[in-house]
Amino acid sequence: MEILFRSLSASIVIVQLITMTESKYVEGVLSTPERWSFLARFCFLSEQGKLHYVFTFSPDFQPQKLLLYYDGSDQWSAVYKKGLSCVEMTSPPHIVPENNQDIILDVTEIWSGCQKIRDNVTREEQVRCEATRTFRSSRERWWYLAVSRCQNSTISGLFAKYKIHMTNGADLFHKEFSADEFTILEVDIVFFLALLVILILAITSAYELKKKFLLHTTYKMYITSLSFETFYVLIMCITYGKYANSGLENHGLKTFGRVSNAVSFLIFILLLLLMGKGFTITRGHISTGGSVKIAIFMTLYTIIYIVLFIYETLFLDPGEVLYVYESPPGYGLLAMQFIAWIYFCYACFFTIKHHPEKSKFYTPFFFFYSTWFLIGPIFVLIAYFGFPKYQRARIVNGIDLGISFLAQTYLLFLTRPQNSNKNFPFHVRTSQIGVMKVDEKDNRLSTDPYFATTEFLSQGPDFTSLFTVTKAVYTSPPEHQDIASARRQGGGTSSRQSEQNDTVDKNPNASNSNPIMTLH
């Protein structure tokens, strides 16, 4: 457990140092020896999509062209990184002048909005081009902006200071958003409120479980994962809310929210694997071998997640990738989730085999969360092959939040501390967890498998301490103390009374008095 959280902490530090470069308000300096360069992309609505640009450069670099490609088969996908020359990339059928797909940035072009000005600081002559374009098409389309300067001259390459503002409509929920991002803010707000309700109910249940001495480590992990998920959705609501007002994206805040989502996901994966192994349900500790396997698996999972996150942030090309699941990091995340599902099936199978009395809990638990592991990748494939590009991002966002919400809600449903809950998994109280030795012959607990173990025959690091319920210190009721005293003085009690005292209460709503566990 400590290894996992150290890895998660490292991921937060690393990812916070990295920022995304995607924005709908683009401002910067283009300086490259190349004759053609990609600038930005945006999904415009027909009739309502507008592009406002400002370019400033030396007269020596005119004329430069602002090129507009759309998502047709003979347009952007046929040009970008295809090895074509500058002239080929700026000629029909890729760029059609009759469709106003090229804007010549030159003072001789009236429609380009270019004029000569004098720089206030250097007093040098500059060319400043400012204008607005409206997009008309049969549907929402992805448009890709590039700048070119193909003609030969004494000065090669491209240079310009630019400001580009791309908008859709005029209302708060659409103006600053690309068409593929429509409804994301509204959906995030709805799911935040829903997750907040679930978090309040989970904390209430945790309070009830604590009163009954049934608040185990796994439920605390569930509360932690749910808290991080709720915090993530809140951060995304704040990020998109600010973006809707200003058109400026807060990359650091958005990245921090995504890291919170990654932490929630990894904790939830670890929680499912531990519960699949029976931790705090059929046993109080995981065996040495099991602890090592889970520790290694989750450490590797976390490291790969960090690597994929960094790769996505540093190396994904917005000219090629529309969202993460269309990239190698996206494929890696889906593959990792499938491997985690295989491990989950393995853990649940042997737990049910050795503890069939817990099948009422594990049967719905296994089938629901097996579906949870698989439904995400399945829906991503459906979105990839079945939906247009300008709809995929918002569809996948809604699916991700919906699947996460259902996963968190169903676990709350399974663990609710009510008499009507026949699937309630926790029956041994935290105050009944003691310390026993391992049987030297078969390396198993000599009595109840729920009891934790601290002494092992093998030498080396104690990995079981990562997944062990610690012993609780409590004061027994007076009548139980009298019985224990009588045993020490009188040499024991009747076998019937001893059996009654050693019985574990399996009713989660029983009174708070705890039976004494007699250790021989």
How are the SSEs placed, and which strands pair?
Layout: H1 2-16, E1 25-32, E2 36-44, E3 49-57, E4 64-70, H2 86-89, E5 102-105, E6 114-118, E7 125-134, E8 141-148, E9 158-168, H3 184-211, H4 217-246, H5 251-276, H6 288-315, H7 328-354, H8 359-386, H9 389-414, E10 435-436, E11 452-453, H10 478-490, H11 495-502
Parallel strand pairs: 10-11
Antiparallel strand pairs: 1-9, 2-8, 3-7, 3-9, 4-5, 4-8, 6-7
Helix pairs in contact: 1-5, 1-6, 3-4, 3-9, 4-5, 5-6, 5-7, 6-7, 7-8, 8-9
Radius of gyration: 31 Å
Strand order of the largest sheet: 1-9-3-7-6
Q: What portion of residues is helical?
A: 40-55%
- Tally of extended strands? 11
User: Oligomer, anyone?
Assistant: single chain
Number of helices: 11
Would you identify the regions where 5 or more consecutive residues have pLDDT less than 50?
A: 1-23, 434-466, 468-481, 491-520
β-strand amount: 5-15%
Distance between the termini: 32 Å
Task: Tell me what the structure shows.
With 520 residues, the protein is of the alpha+beta class. It is 45% helix and 14% strand. The chain is built from eleven helices and eleven strands. A five-stranded antiparallel beta sheet has the order 1-9-3-7-6, with no helix packed on it. It has a four-stranded antiparallel beta sheet with strand order 2-8-4-5, with no helix packed on it. It has a two-stranded parallel ribbon with strand order 10-11. A hairpin with a 6-residue loop joins strand 6 and strand 7. The radius of gyration is 31 Å and the shape is elongated.
